[in-house]
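Need tokens for this chain, all 402 residues.
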Amino acid sequence: MEGITPITDLDVKGKRLLVRADLNVPVRDGKVADATRIARFAAGMRPLLAQGARLVILTHMGRPKGALDPTLSVDKLRPALAEHLGVPVRFSDVSAGRAAEDHANALQDGEALLCENVRYNKGEEVNDPALARQFAALGDIYVNDAFSCAHRAHASTAAVAGFLPAAAGPLMMEEMAALKSALEAPRRPSVAIVGGAKVSTKIPVLRNLVGKLDAVIVGGGMANTFLFARGAPMGRSLHEPDMVDTVREIEALAAQSGCSILLPEDVVVAKEFKEGARKRIVAWDACPEEAMILDAGPRALARFQAVLAGVQTVLWNGPLGAFEVPPFDQSTMALAETAAELTRAGLCVSVAGGGDTVAALNTAGVADDFTYVSTAGGAFLEWLEGRVLPGIAALSRADQAA
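Here are the structure tokens for all 402 residues:
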């Protein structure tokens, strides 16, 4: 976060804040179905409005690819946004050009304007500087408050920061602080829980984590590939035989850095992948030919819980099993509850992120007990990979140039 200015450090009275938000929320029958993102965004904006800021809000919805798809108009977000901001929200049916400028210039202190879907502009997703300059004409200070979009080098997340003084919004600062505390400067001992279907989708994540943390618990279909590399039969289990060399490379990197890789010592198997399927518990190397590994077993769970009880930082991305289908959700649910209990007791910092992970924690009813839960899917994953996110890099460069 070096070289990045929080917007809360600046005098915003009378200033047009061009705020890039991520208000890409689910909408049903023309109404917002889940306003969680809007509520979190608005909580950070209300104090700025109270100080006399003039908000010009840019956001996207869906993937219109530069076409005017009326089903993806952000105008339908206005009622929920106004409710959570506590002020009426004006609307511009374009997000760039003279009409949008006129709307932005008409704002008074403490007022808010929502601009139409930035992805209606053909130059948005190619980071077009000409479009970015048009965006910049709407504000006096650029504020990126959309960490979940920071991995995109788009005109509204990257190029625009070169045309205005730039700052990070409250949500952006909160997200960066949480992730830095879990990965860049964790309280030790530290452990990551990494699950999901395939090793191939998280190779850079695993390489980065084993070099920074004390232990990595591997679950889900990924664990199957690690077990296969150690000689376990897979039966009909999801696994990636062509990833064996990669698994061994990751294990070697972990050994070099003193990071323990923890795999299930027993597993839950079934002949059918369906709710209520008859299951069996077998050793890690005893999956029957006609069965599939679908969850970590009770001995594995007990070991993982014991590991969590001895650490101060927990970073979680991905479930331990096929948590969407009971009874293969038990290890994920139980370990989530353990992490939540330890967090509530003040014994550890817990940071989780990724779509399946958030869904699992919500299903377990413990998301609010974690220290921080990131809703940023792709950006969270790229951060775990150790990559520089274009939206964050742009804030740093812009701040140094301003």
